[in-house]
Amino acid sequence: MKDLVLLIAKALVDDSNQVEVKEVAGEKATVLELKVAAGDRGKIIGKEGRIIKAIRIIVNSASAKLDKRASVEVVE
């Protein structure tokens, strides 16, 4: 999952060197914390949150196929 989010995020931002994904495993689910440069945060979130919503749908679908739960959060 981490590699999937990293690949998508690097394709969307201008400064791909500052993209970081941290995987935090919990009891029931895994949280993927996505960190990008301040200027690229809007590109990841998108207009009315459409892009981050699409990324979350992709991650949820991929994790469901592996019988796991995962969510994506954008952190500062």
Order of helices and strands: HEEHHE
The CATH architecture is 2-Layer Sandwich
Return the structural class.
alpha+beta
Count the domains.
Answer: 1
Given as residue ranges, the uncertain stretches (5+ residues, pLDDT < 50) are none
The portion of residues forming beta strands comes to 15-25%
Q: What's the Cα radius of gyration?
A: 12 Å
Instruction: Determine the CATH superfamily.
Output: K homology (KH) domain
Instruction: Give the overall pLDDT as a whole number.
Output: 93
The dominant shape is globular
Number of helices: 3
What's the end-to-end separation, in Å? Answer: 20 Å
Strand order within the widest sheet? 1-2-3
Keywords:
76 residues, alpha+beta, three-stranded mixed sheet
In short:
This protein is of the alpha+beta class and 76 residues long. The protein has helices at residues 2-12, 41-45, 50-65, and strands at 20-25, 30-35, 70-75.
Report on this model:
- The chain has one domain (about 1-75): GMP Synthetase, Chain A, domain 3 (2-Layer Sandwich), CATH 3.30.300.20.
- The mean pLDDT is about 95.
- Strand 1 and strand 2 (about 30-35) form a beta hairpin.
- A 3-stranded mixed beta sheet has the order 1-2-3.
- The protein has helices at about 1-10, 40-45, 50-65, and strands at about 20-25, 30-35, 70-75.
- The chain is about 40% helix and about 25% strand.
- It has about 80 residues and is α+β, with helices and mostly antiparallel strands.
- It is globular.
Secondary-structure blueprint of this entry?
Elements lengths: L1 H11 L7 E6 L4 E6 L5 H5 L4 H16 L4 E6 L1
Parallel strand pairs: 2-3
Antiparallel strand pairs: 1-2
